[in-house]
Amino acid sequence: MAAVEELIRSEEKGGISFGNHTLEKKAKLEDFRHEGDLLKVKTFHEMTKLEKNGMFLYESVPGTSVLHFREADTGVEFIVEGSEDAQITVGLKEDTEYEVFVAEERIGVMKTGMSGKLSLSVELENAGEVPVKVVQVHG
Question: Are the C-beta atoms of residues 69 and 37 closer than 8 Å to each other?
Answer without folding.
Answer: no
